[in-house]
Specification:
InterPro entries: Translation_reg_Com. This protein is mainly β. Helices cover 0% and strands 26% of the residues.
Amino acid sequence: MEIRCSHCHRKLANAEFTFIEIKCPRCSTVNSLRVENSLIPERHRASFSSEKPHGTDTPRTITPPI
């Protein structure tokens, strides 16, 4: 996607993003751009935790009192 200043139309960048703010070096206008949710590709998150996922522990045996 080409990013252009909304005031003077100078090309500021080419980008793939979900949200970005850029200040135009020519006219100092702050330009904010956001991608609609329907256009964002779904990504899978990697887990970096060394712990077991919740609910996967070995079941405990409870002995009733005598």
